[in-house]
Design goal:
The protein is mainly alpha-helical and 249 residues long. Helices cover 57% and strands 8% of the residues. Pfam families: DUF2231 (PF09990), RUBY_RBDX (PF21349).
Length: 249
């Protein structure tokens, strides 16, 4: 049933057509406008990315998702009522695309479920993201003041990053596969690549520090410092992209 609103006094009439005159203020039927169901209108003009859950408002979905980069085919019409109902139900996660014997697959699934349920990737990723900037500062101070002890502190911090990165990468891949369906978009490829760069550089810098403990004060200290800044930049980019996925901005 349609609804009509009097533009003069705000009276709302229910019926297929507006009344000849407003029963409240006496305005003619020309003063009535049809009231559009805003909720239904919003539903028709909202689209959800099936990869990262970004909501787009418009007559059509965007060509690419501004958050994760998924193409237009990954968008579906968004229904707020259905979304509210789905939030009351347990989250459905993608099954791992692996070929293992049944025992190994069960173990992997149990670990993966804990990774998702306890948000282990965002927790673990804060370890290198917090330690790498400190390591960069220590390397700079060691090079500037010729302090071997400060350089040693940077070395230990780098080893800590190298030990943490396998956990970060594993939990990140699990979350990507189960929460985002393992979709290959520029965002995910860049994020995974940056994680690999951080891991590789942490290994290289750690080994370099083992074989040359005076590297921060030696002739190649400038190159050593550049590698630290590359590692810091890669961690920063990965963190920024992770933030886009979380906040949908």
């Amino acid at each position: 049933m349609k609804k009509w609103k009097c533009k003069v006094c705000g009276y709302v009439h229910t019926g297929e057509n507006p009344p000849d005159n407003c029963p409240v203020c006496g305005a003619s039927k020309e003063q009535f406008i049809e009231v559009v169901d805003q909720a239904a209108q919003d539903t028709e003009s909202q689209w959800q990315c099936t990869v990262c859950k970004y909501i787009h408002k418009g007559a059509e979905p965007p060509e690419t998702c501004p958050v994760c980069g998924a193409d237009q085919s990954k968008f579906i019409r968004f229904d707020p009522a259905q979304e509210a109902q789905s939030q009351k139900e347990p989250e459905s996660l993608s099954q791992p695309d692996i070929e293992m014997d049944s025992f190994a697959a069960k173990v992997y699934q149990i670990i993966s479920n804990h990774v998702i349920a306890h948000h282990l990737h965002p927790i673990s990723v804060h370890i290198p993201n917090g330690v790498i900037p400190l390591a960069v500062i220590l390397v700079l101070l060691s090079s500037m003041f010729g302090s071997g002890s400060v350089g040693l502190a940077a070395f230990y911090n780098t080893i800590f990053v190298a030990l943490a990165m396998p956990i970060v990468l594993f939990t990140g891949v699990v979350e990507w596969k189960q929460r985002y369906g393992g979709t290959y978009t520029n965002l995910f490829v860049t994020k995974i690549t940056c994680g690999g760069v951080v891991f590789a550089l942490s290994i290289i810098l750690s080994l370099w520090g083992i074989f040359d403990q005076s590297i921060t004060t030696g002739e190649l200290s400038w190159f050593y410092i550049i590698l630290y800044f590359i590692m810091l930049a890669a961690a920063g980019i990965a963190g920024h992209l992770g933030g886009k996925l979380v906040f949908k901005e």
